[in-house]
């Protein structure tokens, strides 16, 4: 393959590779597919030089379900360097990436709620009354009914009150005042654990924000969608910074 042909193929592949780079934490197989395709056209793969057909057979056998590959015979070039050029449109790439992402989410290998938190891991907001009405997820430790092994589950609840550190107590009978920042959370009924709707006070540490530890906590998926919608509305309502055109005529 000539230098001009290599540049041409690279130019065609680059938009798809750029699109793919935006999809983080994709499967190893999927990233290997793109790397192998890229290397193939730059003479750094064992399938190069006269083995274009073998390469495509290997590609289909190794990655049968990632996405449908459309093949088109490359124009020009010597017969012993004749390639079947693999073309991947941005639409196909995005659709395949989304399918794979959905599969990984269903398997628990990808957690979009963790990825889209508005604060860095371990640097959460200070729990106070600003969280009133917010939907949070708290990571609770349960015991398996049969084995007794610890099981961790993210549980979603609504913050209904933040302790002021002066008057709030767990109950009227308690003498001890709750520390400022303790949150009273309403938990919905959970049939799988035979639990009715309940309320509980929780002391959440900002250092445990979005961490996979007991009493780790984060904003729930429903809350993230609401916050993102509010941000989009604020952005759309911002006045244009463009200066009005002045007609000097």
Specify Rg, calculated over alpha carbons.
27 Å
Which structural class should the secondary elements be placed in? alpha+beta
Q: How would you spell out the order of helices and strands?
A: HHHEEHHEEEEEH
How many separate helices? Answer: 6
Q: What percent of residues are in strands?
A: 15-25%
Q: Which strand order do you get reading across the main beta sheet?
A: 6-5-4-3-7
Segments where pLDDT lies below 50 for 5+ residues? 23-27, 42-52, 66-85
Query: Could you give the distance between the termini?
Result: 59 Å
Instruction: Indicate the overall shape.
Output: flat
Average of per-residue pLDDT values: 75
Number of β-strand runs? 7
Major sheet summary line: 5 strands, antiparallel
Helix content: 25-40%
Topology:
Layout: H1 3-21, H2 28-40, H3 52-62, E1 70-73, E2 84-87, H4 90-106, H5 112-115, E3 135-143, E4 150-162, E5 183-187, E6 198-202, E7 217-219, H6 221-237
Biased composition (Basic residues): 239-249
Region (Disordered): 228-249
């Amino acid at each position: 393959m000539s230098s001009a042909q290599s540049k041409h193929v690279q130019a065609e592949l680059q938009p798809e590779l750029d699109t793919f780079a935006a999809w983080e934490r994709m499967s190893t197989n999927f990233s290997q597919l793109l790397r192998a395709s890229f290397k193939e056209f730059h003479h750094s793969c064992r399938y190069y030089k006269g083995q274009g057909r073998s390469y495509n057979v290997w590609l289909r056998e190794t990655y049968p379900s990632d996405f449908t590959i459309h093949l088109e015979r490359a124009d020009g070039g010597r017969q012993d360097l004749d390639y079947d050029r693999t073309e991947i449109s941005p639409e196909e790439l995005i659709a395949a990436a989304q399918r794979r992402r959905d599969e990984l989410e269903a398997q628990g290998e990808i957690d979009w709620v963790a990825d889209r938190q508005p604060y860095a891991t371990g640097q959460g907001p200070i729990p106070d009354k600003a969280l009133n009405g917010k939907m949070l997820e708290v990571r609770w430790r349960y015991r398996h009914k049969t084995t007794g092994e610890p099981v961790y589950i993210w549980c979603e609840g609504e913050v209904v009150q933040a302790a002021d550190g002066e008057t709030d107590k767990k109950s009227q009978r308690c003498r001890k005042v709750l520390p400022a920042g303790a949150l009273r959370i309403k938990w919905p009924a959970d049939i799988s654990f035979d639990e009715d709707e309940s309320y509980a006070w929780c002391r959440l540490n900002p250092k445990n924000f979005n961490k996979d530890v007991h009493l780790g906590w984060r904003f729930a998926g429903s809350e993230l969608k609401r916050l993102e919608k509010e941000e989009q509305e604020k952005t759309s309502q911002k006045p244009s910074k463009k200066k009005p055109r002045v007609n000097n005529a």
